[in-house]
């Protein structure tokens, strides 16, 4: 055995024994001081091999021993904070990665709240403030020549990026400002820059380094949604550093090339957003899109076709980046071809939102502005074919914005793709969007030579807003004084078309079954939309016909997806589904509650079921509802078949009659309140009890007691609403008993939204069940709930929960005079 190595081990064992058994402050101070020689920070530092053994084998164990001794009495063994300063120096001067992991481990394992937890948290904040996080990452960058430790790197990566979440969960309201995400991630960006500077200096000195760990840190931070905080620090500094240094450019390129594929999209989107222009983006990314298939997919497909959230500066930077280098310009041409194909697809025109269509149109104009005449001429036939097909599909559309997009893009694209041919010229209304798109079409200088972008041009736009004409023969402007001026119609006053409605070629179905067939099997999308708009009115006018197909209607509406850009689609679908439920409540409610716990439903559909049940129950419980349609505004009287528009003059006449009528009686002139039986009374059980049956049974994709807490909270609120709507009904008592058992089972749930729903449900029971029935049938449950409510009102961390608990207690206090005599022996 090597005597020097064994000497290090014996020294550490002796120090640990003294720390564990001695209460002599002076002896402990001397022991800790003797161990500092292994950190290399003293005059009589240990030999390099001894320092290496201490750091590799003994340092983490020794730090855990120091953490275990931390207490107020132990720190006061020496005056003036000497013991604490010496204790902290081992974390701040020793190997940074091990010190960081022991700090995080001790924080996660400490009791909360406690003296040790706060001391370790403040030491971690000091650790960050003196730049030790840079030392943690620098250590991983210098392991290029040594053996790799993937488990250590993965642990460090998780702790470094997840630090704000971990500290926030542990410290709760005692959290320090240093650990807030808005403060921590900019600090992390600055530390990454410091490490990159060390890497550059090492490379200049001939030493090998790796930036893979930094790439993983950057990727994981962006995946956590912190692109703005991290890249907001990195990109401005890298913009300056890469401007005159090829070495800095290569290091930056390596940084983004080593980003894992699972984080590439988040990182690239952050760079595109933070970069001030395509020149900077090209300098920071290099030819990344030609080296990484994932990066190429993100830059040429994902951000152009599958997302449309990029701002115009971001879109210009992205496409300008593709145009900045000859190796990337082929990707720009390929993107233009695919954009034109998508832009001209008749299916996309019908189904894609107008906002995304505008986004694709602007991307086409930017691509055309960056490409030169020679490049466009090589693919002229293919581009023109896609353009003409798209123009035809858009001009055939019944939506004016879609037609106008076709006109603008057709004018610009035809002039750029086929400049020698007759230009396409249209007349359309100019607005801010039109001017923005025409500005995007201005040619840009190419990156590989003098301007090949072609001459500038100004598409002709007419002054008549509502006339849309096309002339393919040539220029329309004749010489001054020609006879063409005699044919001008500028002096004619246009018709007032402000109240005109768009005519639809497909007639809306007149029967419920016709609407059902149109929604399930029609390929005529205008008829499909007309059927959806007409169905609600037909349901209330034909309740008997609706009840024959009520469950089938509910099934179709529950699974219905938006096939066209229908304004207010979700509202239409929900109102129609509510109408079906109100018309045949027992069978439809039984179907919907069964589907709530069925397989192969999304969380959105399950929450839709809860919303529909609540709205239908509210409508059924409305006094005076018999024979009346729901009291909600319809989207458009003209869009409902058979709907009569109330003349405006009738309201005026009735108002004049009311004003001029003299009344000699001083009786009430107001309308008597609506009265009638509560229709929800007979069907409340179908709505309520099935929702309580399987809440504790997890499915493959649905677990209310697991990760689907949002749906559980919505379920609790829905049950409370159904309970309240069943006020004074015969089924209110068993409903209240079942609901209180549900609340009692989940009373300690960790999610605040769920607890709010449970507290609201208790209040609903107190408001819905008569007082005498509460005392007779639910006394034991109420006494249990009272103790729980008191605990929540005092100790719950959520303010809304405390407020709801207080309200429920106030309701219970109203029953105090009756509860006390019955509960006393």
TrEMBL record:
Localization, UniProt: Cytoplasm; Membrane; Nucleus
Main location (coarse class): cytoplasm
Assigned keywords, A-Z: Cytoplasm, Membrane, Nucleus
UniProt xrefs under SUPFAM superfamilies: ARM repeat
Any one GO cellular component localisation term in the record: nucleus
Cited Gene3D superfamilies: Telomere length regulation protein 2, C-terminal domain
TELO2 ARM repeat domain segment(s): 324-422
Function as written in the Swiss-Prot or TrEMBL entry: Regulator of the DNA damage response (DDR). Part of the TTT complex that is required to stabilize protein levels of the phosphatidylinositol 3-kinase-related protein kinase (PIKK) family proteins. The TTT complex is involved in the cellular resistance to DNA damage stresses, like ionizing radiation (IR), ultraviolet (UV) and mitomycin C (MMC). Together with the TTT complex and HSP90 may participate in the proper folding of newly synthesized PIKKs.
Designated name of the protein: Telomere length regulation protein TEL2 homolog
């Amino acid at each position: 055995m090597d005597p020097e190595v064994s000497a290090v081990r014996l020294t550490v064992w002796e120090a640990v024994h003294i720390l564990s058994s001695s209460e002599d402050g002076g002896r402990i101070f001397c022991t800790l001081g003797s161990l500092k020689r292994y950190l290399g920070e003293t005059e009589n530092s240990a030999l390099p091999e001894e320092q290496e053994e201490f750091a590799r084998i003994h340092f983490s164990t020794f730090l855990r021993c120091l953490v275990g001794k931390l207490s107020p009495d132990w720190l006061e063994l020496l005056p003036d904070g000497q013991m604490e300063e010496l204790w902290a120096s081992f974390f701040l001067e020793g190997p940074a990665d091990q010190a960081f992991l022991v700090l995080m481990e001790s924080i996660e394992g400490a009791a909360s709240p406690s003296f040790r937890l706060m001391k370790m948290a403040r030491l971690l904040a000091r650790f960050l403030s003196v730049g030790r996080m840079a030392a943690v990452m620098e250590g991983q960058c210098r392991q290029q020549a040594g053996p790799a430790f993937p488990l250590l790197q993965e642990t460090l990566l998780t702790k470094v990026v997840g630090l704000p979440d971990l500290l926030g969960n542990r410290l709760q309201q005692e959290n320090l400002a240093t650990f807030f995400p808005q403060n921590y991630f900019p600090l992390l960006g600055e530390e990454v820059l410091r490490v990159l500077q060390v890497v550059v200096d090492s490379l200049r000195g001939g030493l090998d380094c790796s930036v893979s760990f930094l790439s993983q840190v950057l990727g994981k931070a962006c995946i956590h949604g912190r692109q703005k905080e991290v890249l907001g620090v990195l990109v401005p500094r890298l913009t300056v550093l890469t401007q005159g240094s090829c070495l800095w450019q290569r290091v930056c390129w390596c940084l983004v090339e080593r980003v894992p594929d699972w984080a590439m999209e988040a990182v690239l989107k952050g760079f595109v957003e933070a970069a001030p222009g395509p020149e900077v983006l090209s300098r920071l990314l290099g030819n990344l899109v030609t080296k990484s298939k994932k990066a190429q997919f993100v830059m040429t497909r994902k951000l152009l076709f599958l997302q449309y959230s990029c701002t115009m500066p971001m879109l210009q930077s992205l496409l300008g980046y593709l145009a900045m280098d000859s190796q990337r310009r082929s990707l720009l041409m390929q993107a233009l071809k695919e954009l034109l194909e998508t832009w001209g697809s008749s299916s996309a025109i019908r189904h894609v939102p107008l906002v995304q269509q505008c986004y694709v149109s602007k991307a086409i104009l930017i691509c055309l502005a960056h490409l030169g005449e020679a490049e466009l001429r090589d693919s002229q036939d293919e581009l023109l074919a896609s353009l003409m097909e798209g123009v035809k599909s858009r001009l055939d559309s019944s939506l004016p914005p879609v037609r106008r997009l076709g006109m603008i893009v057709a004018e610009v694209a035809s002039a750029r793709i086929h400049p020698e041919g007759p230009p396409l010229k249209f007349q359309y209304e100019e607005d801010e969007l039109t001017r923005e798109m025409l500005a995007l079409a201005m040619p840009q200088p190419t990156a590989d030579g003098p301007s090949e972008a072609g001459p500038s041009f100004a598409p002709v736009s007419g002054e008549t807003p509502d006339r849309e004409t096309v002339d393919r023969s040539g220029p329309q402007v004749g010489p001054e004084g020609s006879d063409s001026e005699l044919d001008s119609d500028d002096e004619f006053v246009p018709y007032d078309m402000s109240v005109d409605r768009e005519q639809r070629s497909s007639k809306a179905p007149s029967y419920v079954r016709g609407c059902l067939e149109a929604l399930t099997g029609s390929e005529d999308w205008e008829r499909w939309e007309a059927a959806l708009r007409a169905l609600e009115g037909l349901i209330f006018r034909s309740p008997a016909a609706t009840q024959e197909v009520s469950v089938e209607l509910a099934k179709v509406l529950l699974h219905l997806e938006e096939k066209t850009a229908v304004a207010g689609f979700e509202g239409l679908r929900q109102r129609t589904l509510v109408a079906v439920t109100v018309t045949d409540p027992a069978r439809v409610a039984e179907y919907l509650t069964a589907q709530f716990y069925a397989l192969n439903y999304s969380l959105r559909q399950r929450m839709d079921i809860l919303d529909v049940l609540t709205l239908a129950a509210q409508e059924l419980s409305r006094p005076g509802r018999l024979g009346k349609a729901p009291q909600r505004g319809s989207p458009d009287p003209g869009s409902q078949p058979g709907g009569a528009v109330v003349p405006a003059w009738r309201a005026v006449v009735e108002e004049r009659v009311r004003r001029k009528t003299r009344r000699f009686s001083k009786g009430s002139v107001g309308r008597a309140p609506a009265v009638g039986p509560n229709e929800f009374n007979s069907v409340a059980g179908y709505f309520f009890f099935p929702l309580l049956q399987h809440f504790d049974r997890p499915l493959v994709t649905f677990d209310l007691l697991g990760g689907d807490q949002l749906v559980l909270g919505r379920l609790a609120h829905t049950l409370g609403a159904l309970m309240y709507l069943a006020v004074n009904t015969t089924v209110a008592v068993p409903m209240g008993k079942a609901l209180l058992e549900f609340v009692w089972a989940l009373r300690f749930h960790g999610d605040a939204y769920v607890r709010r729903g449970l507290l609201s449900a208790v209040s609903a029971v107190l408001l819905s069940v008569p007082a005498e029935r509460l005392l007779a049938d639910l006394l034991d449950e109420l006494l249990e709930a009272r103790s729980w409510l008191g605990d929540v009102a005092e100790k719950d961390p959520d303010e809304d929960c405390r407020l709801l608990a207080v309200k429920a207690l106030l309701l219970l206090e109203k029953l105090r005079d009756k509860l006390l005599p019955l509960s006393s022996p």
